[in-house]
Each structure stands twice: as C-alpha cells, then as structure tokens.
Design a protein that fits this description.
Elements lengths: L4 E4 L4 E4 L5 H11 L9 E2 L3 H7 L4 H10 L2 E8 L13 E6 L3 H14 L3 E2 L1 E2 L11 H8 L8 E2 L11 E6 L2 E6 L5 H7 L16 E7 L2 E7 L7
Parallel strand pairs: 1-8, 3-5, 4-9
Antiparallel strand pairs: 1-2, 2-7, 3-6, 4-5, 9-10, 10-11, 11-12
C-alpha cells in the first residue's frame, strides 16, 4: 500500500506521497479526481534541499531568502532525474513550510524515504478546500480510504501560497496568494511594477531583462494547480 499523508501547513492541509514514486502520484491524482498530468509541488525541509533537486539562479535565490520558509511555491528547472516524471516542461515546484507540524512531518518523511513529499491541497479537484481533516476526508468520499496517515492539528484556512516561476533571469507570477506581487518584485529588485486591477482573480505577470533594457509582459493565464 502506498503511503498517503494528510498533514497541515501554514496555509491549508496538504496530501503527501513520495514524489519519486510515479505510481504514488497516479494514486494521488485518483484521490483528488484530477488529471495525472497536472503539476504537483514538492515539500522539502529547507532551501538546501531545493538546491539539491533544482537549478537555482541568483534571482530565484533572492526569492528563497526573502520568503522561505513561507507561503511561496517556487517553480524551477529540475536537475534530478527522479523528479522528471512530475514535469512536462522540465520544471518542478517546491515548498518549504514554516508550520512546525509540517516541518516535523517532512523531516520524518525525508529521513525515512530520502525523497521529497508532495504538497498539493487536500481537496477534491474543483472543490473549495475545507479546513479540518474530518471535513477533508468527508469531501474525498470513498477515495479517503487511501489516506494512510492523518496528522490532525486543528483547522487550517489560510490563503494559498503565491506561485512563482523562476527560470534563468525571468520571474513569472503564476498565482497571487499570501505574498503580494509587489513584494515578489521588490525582493528581486525589479524597478517597474505592473499595476493589476483588484478585480482580476487569476493573473500571470512576467518580467525579464532583454538586452540593455527592461521588457515586461502581462499575461492573464489560467492558474496552475500546484
């Protein structure tokens, strides 16, 4: 039986399986009722773990120093072939949670399995995440039988993490969450900020250097499910 852990983070509860195990990821997709090709993040102990599994540019490192541990999901080029099955474009996303219970859970998991644990919201695909393990298991219905361990630390109903893609010198905000877009760009010392209307619920902002000048793009894309 594949180990499936329901655990709290500083934002909402997550579902964890061995990120190196493609069969476990397929089971995770079945539990959530979503396509197996949809991206899933990795929870790790610290930023040193991220450096072990991914290519970290100077720009990405600035974001990691500023916001990790914390509600940042950072998407980076993958350098570990054991995680390649998680990606369709050569990138993998990572989380480092400051929640003490999550920290204990990932330390124990990585000590035992020597692998990252997935960090995807504990909800049925398309449904709003609920805040307690009991409510989560009820929402998952029959699929809840696959959950092998429940770490119950009370309600969690925080704002989801901000998702940022950082490849080479580009910074793309895929989803705005607990960390504001302005704070992301301030952390990497980008001078021109894009103003986004407050009524836009899903937006992607890109900023990158081009030649001697600064070019910027603003794209309103579908939020990646991380």
């Amino acid at each position: 039986m594949k180990e499936v852990i329901l655990y709290p983070t500083e934002t909402i509860y997550g579902l964890g399986v061995n990120a190196f195990d493609a069969d476990a990821l397929s089971l995770l997709a079945e539990i959530k009722g979503r396509p197996v090709t949809q991206a899933v993040s990795c929870l790790v102990r610290n930023t040193a773990d991220i450096e072990h599994f991914a290519q970290v540019s100077d720009t990405a490192r600035k974001l990691m120093v500023a916001f990790l541990p914390g509600p940042l999901t950072i998407i980076l080029p993958c350098t570990d072939e054991r995680l390649q099955h998680m990606s369709t474009d050569g990138t993998v996303s990572f989380r480092v949670s400051p929640d003490p219970v999550a920290q204990q859970a990932i330390k124990a998991f990585m000590d035992q399995c020597d692998a990252p644990m997935t960090c995807t919201s504990a909800n049925h695909h398309g449904d709003t995440p609920v805040d307690t393990p009991a409510a989560i298991l009820e929402q998952l219905g029959e699929q809840a039988m696959h959950v092998t361990q429940v770490i119950d630390d009370g309600a969690r109903s925080g704002v989801p993490s901000t998702v940022v893609r950082c490849v080479d010198d580009s910074v793309e905000i895929v989803r705005v969450g607990a960390i504001a877009a302005d704070d992301i760009y301030a952390a990497v010392a980008l001078q021109t900020l894009i103003s986004v209307s407050s009524n836009i619920s899903c937006a992607s902002w890109r900023k990158r250097t081009s030649g001697a000048g600064m070019a910027s793009q603003c794209n309103h894309d579908a939020v990646v499910g991380r």
